[in-house]
Amino acid sequence: MKINLIPAILTVATLTTTILTNDTTPFQYRYEIRADSYHPVEEINLYYYKEELIDTYERLCLDMDMIYQESAIKNNLYLFEFNSHIKASYVDGTIVLVVGRGQGYVIRGQLRKNQCDSETVREKYYFLDLFK
Q1: Gap between the Cα atoms of 103 and 38, Å rounded
Q2: 48, 24 Cβ separation under 8 angstroms
Q3: How far is CA 54 from its chain centroid?
Q4: SS (H, E, C) 34-91
Q5: CB-based burial of residue 65 (10 Å sphere; 0-12 exposed, 13-18 middle, 19+ buried)?
Q6: Cα separation of 5 and 14, whole Å?
Q7: Largest alpha-carbon pair distance within the chain?
Q8: pLDDT tens, residue by residue, 65-122
Q9: Pairing between strand 94-99 and 30-34?
């Protein structure tokens, strides 16, 4: 009787622990950036913010073990606020940057999980660098 009771207790304890500790969405290696408005300059700025977000994420997390990446991002959200108009947050496993009121264009994408992943797609408007 005791032999059958021990596996049942262990199974119930494991299931209970799993249910109770899984109350947050795990880090999904995603980002979202919301522009202030639908002005064409705001759309262009989104891609510069995207570059900064990717660079900051890679400096912060790629050399770190996966189990620590989520807490590192939550504890260092201020690093993603590149200027005074940006507010960074962590929502449902995604890094979210809101520029100004955040009522404009939105870009979303995935981040690399580790050094072995393929390179992140980095779109850039080279002709815009001529006007800076």
Answers
A1: 8
A2: no
A3: 9
A4: ECCCCCHHHHHHHHHHHHHHHHHHHHHHCCCCHHHHHHHHHHCHHHHCCCCCEEEEEE
A5: exposed
A6: 14
A7: 81
A8: 888 888 899 999 999 998 899 999 998 889 999 999 989 999 998 887 766 666 555 5
A9: parallel
pTM (2 d.p.): 0.67
Structure tokens at 104: 């404009």
**Which tokens sit at 88?**
């960074």
For residue 7, give both structure tokens.
């596996």
| CA separation for the pair 26, 92 (Å, rounded) | 8
38/16 Cα distance (integer angstroms): 48
Amino acid residing at 21:
T
Number of neighbouring beta carbons within 10 Å of residue 16: 10
